[in-house]
Amino acid sequence: MLLNDTGIKVIESDMQNDGLIPFLLGAPGIGKSSVVRAICEKNNWGFHELLCNQITMPADLTGARTISVKDDQGVDHFRQTFFPHAVIQDAIDEAEANPSKTVVLFLDEINRTSSHVTSALLTFITARTIGTEKLPMNIKLVAAGNDDGNVIALDQASITRFMLRRCEPDAQVFLGLGKIHPVIEDLLKQQPALIYQIHNAVVDENSEEIYSEEENDFQQIATPRTIMGLNKALLNNSKMVMQMDEAALKEYVSGFTGDTLFTEAVVTAIMANKYKLATPVGIEAPAKPACLDMLMNASSITDIQSMVAGMSDEDRSAAMLYMLYDKNTNYTNVMPEVLHAYGKNMLLGDGQSKLTTIINSGEFNHDAYDVIMNADTQLTNVFKMVYGGV
């Protein structure tokens, strides 16, 4: 379920249900707690968030203590009493002081703690009692957790206590959260699925990944939380970012959003924008590669494909650049074959900067350009982000 307007309405309806407890499942940082908080603010409900992963033992939850009390004869006796966790007590106090007001107790990361604490939380949820303290009827419980990673699995009996909602972030909701850097805004409009990405970046065959899953278990991911962190950094440090070379920029961005497709796309777009900002007024005709004449003289598509397969990516890049420059020749038979054999997301060398100059001038081969825009390749995705429909 996407955390968009429809999904939020479903969760709000679940929170008004007097039966089962809403349980929001999803990756960290996608906005589960923000949604619950926003619903509470909208309805003027009380909101209290208990971070269950910070509780180390059941006694921290129930506040079990042995205290000394005197009987009527003044003799000391010892008995166990309970002081609920401060967050739970705050919720109880607000609910008791406002019996007609709904108060939400949000149990976050309920299954990212020890099995003993999770078990105690489930008992608390079922009995609505912690120690000797009973939850007022106007307290609504909502839980959240993760369904992968280092989590405690819940048995079927426990799961039946909840309404499970598997949540995914929505790019359009993210874009409405405030000022968004143009690169991130354009990227998520073109490829909304990148709002959540784990370690799956496509890297150049001659490059090394910044992080390796085999060597390091600390892997950053791209989620609304980490993307917003990157967004603020790009907005506040634009001068520093624009002075970075590609390797430094990738390392910088991956610190926020990991070695992911999102990071790759952001770096590509920023580097292309740097080329665009540095575009000179004049247009220098690119060199025409010898291989292009051979391709144009081929007698069949099969022959073109055979020739393209034997070309280097440098030759393919140069051929595409010239085909985009030369607006007086029909390359619609050759361009698709070169494009689909090309494995990079940008033109090589100074090809991208030269192409940007050509595109900005408006004097380019629109048919060849349309071939790229209508394909399904890495280069196509970059063209859509950087140049758009032109």
Described by its quaternary structure, the protein is single chain
Q: Radius of gyration from the CA trace?
A: 29 Å
Strand order of the largest sheet: 2-5-8-1-9
The CATH architecture of the largest domain can be given as 3-Layer(aba) Sandwich
Work out the number of β strands: 9
Helix count, DSSP H or I runs of 4 or more residues: 19
Q: Report how far apart the termini are.
A: 35 Å
Unreliable stretches covering 5 or more consecutive residues: 201-215
Determine the fraction of residues in helical runs and give it as a percent range.
40-55%
| Percent in strands | 5-15%
Largest sheet: 5 strands, parallel
Order of helices and strands: HEHEHEEHEHEEEHEHHHHHHHHHHHHH
General form: elongated
* Structure class: alpha/beta
The CATH class of the largest domain is identified as: Alpha Beta
Number of domains: 3
Report the CATH superfamily of the largest domain. P-loop containing nucleotide triphosphate hydrolases
The overall pLDDT average reads: 83
Indicate the CATH topology of the largest domain. Rossmann fold
SSE order and pairing:
Blueprint: H1 5-15, E1 21-25, H2 32-43, E2 46-51, H3 58-62, E3 64-70, E4 76-82, H4 86-97, E5 103-108, H5 115-127, E6 129-130, E7 133-134, E8 139-145, H6 156-159, E9 162-166, H7 171-175, H8 182-190, H9 224-236, H10 238-242, H11 246-257, H12 261-277, H13 290-296, H14 301-309, H15 313-325, H16 335-341, H17 351-361, H18 366-373, H19 378-386
Parallel strand pairs: 1-8, 1-9, 2-5, 5-8
Antiparallel strand pairs: 3-4, 6-7
Helix pairs in contact: 8-19, 11-12, 15-16, 15-17
